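Structure ticket #2291
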Amino acid sequence: MTSVYDFSARAIDGTDVSLDRFRGQALLIVNTASRCGFTGQYDGLEKLHRAFADQPFEVLGFPCNQFGEQEPGKAAEIAAFCAASFEVTFPLFDKVEVNGPNRHPLYDWLTEQKRGFLGSKAIKWNFTKFLTDREGRVVARYAPQTEPEAIKADIEKLI
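Resolution: structure written out below.
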């Protein structure tokens, strides 16, 4: 697989989605959680989504329960929480694993493209972010504490 567009994932509503549907767009891919100290970043992610709504850019949220069991709900509960608490309108996907033997293939590829601290493929916590360019290549990886607003200039360079 050579680009992010070669992968697919199950959307929060249970439908299978080919990421090829986002071809030509820069993407910010984030593993999310509803009960995390960084959960407030949903607000910043939604602001990015709205700020670039008419540009070739999209935020993709991938809930994950691997860190402190901070995303225990079912898909419908996660979707309802995100809509009610943060008015999230960017695409959300069903829960995935981002580490270990059941790591989603997308995350296996993302972490191979941009490794973390000391070259580790492991995702360290919720709200790790990957930015891809409009050709589907990973151009940056951001730590969980990086606020979405701090990524805005990098997105602008890509669109």
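Closing remark: The chain has a mean pLDDT of 96.
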